């Protein structure tokens, strides 16, 4: 199982993105893995593509339907709150948004595919950097 961050989904879906080829190649080499996406990432992708036009929005919807979207719910909020507290106490807090991405990946035990290196500050999180510079 692989958890996809917004950066990955945007790069994968948009051939004009600098890291599109990196994302496509990275995912192609893991084609048998089930894909999950935190609900906040699904929203971010849909929000951006809706603003870019109906074709991009429909393409994003189609891709997200091939994944399992990880809902937040109370247990997810508890996990995210606990993670935020632990990271803050360790002097390495994430933004609220990034905490809401990392917590569900941790809950399901999936590596997080991202370009955002700040997730490496989460000790228990397996971070899969897919760009040519890091992954």
Could you walk me through the main structural features you see in this protein, from its secondary elements to its overall organization?
There is one protein chain. By secondary structure, the protein is of the alpha/beta class. The protein contains 6 helices and 5 strands. The protein has one domain (2-129): Rossmann fold, CATH 3.40.50.1010. Helix 1 crosses helix 2 (20-28) and helix 5 packs across helix 6. It starts with a strand and ends in a 6-residue tail after the last strand.
Number of strands: 5
CATH class annotation: Alpha Beta
- What's the tally of helices? 6
Residue windows where pLDDT falls under 50 for at least 5 positions: none
Structural class: alpha/beta
At CATH level 2, the architecture is 3-Layer(aba) Sandwich
Number of domains: 1
- Our measurement of the CA-to-CA distance between the termini, rounded to an integer number of angstroms, reads 17 Å
Helix content: 40-55%
Radius of gyration: 15 Å
User: How would you spell out the order of helices and strands?
Assistant: EHHEHHEHHEE
CATH topology: Rossmann fold
């Amino acid at each position: 199982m692989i958890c996809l961050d917004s950066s990955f989904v945007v790069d994968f879906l948009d051939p004009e993105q600098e890291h599109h080829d990196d994302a496509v190649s990275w995912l192609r080499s893991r084609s048998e893995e089930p894909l999950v996406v935190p609900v906040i990432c699904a929203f971010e992708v849909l929000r951006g593509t809706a603003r870019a036009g109906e074709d991009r929005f429909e393409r994003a919807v189609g891709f997200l339907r091939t994944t399992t979207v990880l809902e937040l719910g109370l247990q997810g909020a508890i996990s995210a709150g606990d993670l935020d507290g632990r990271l803050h106490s360790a002097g390495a807090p994430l933004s609220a948004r990034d905490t809401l991405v990392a917590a569900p990946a941790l809950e399901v035990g999936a590596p997080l595919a991202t370009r955002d290196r700040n997730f490496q500050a989460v000790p228990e999180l397996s971070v899969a950097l897919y760009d040519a510079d890091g992954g």
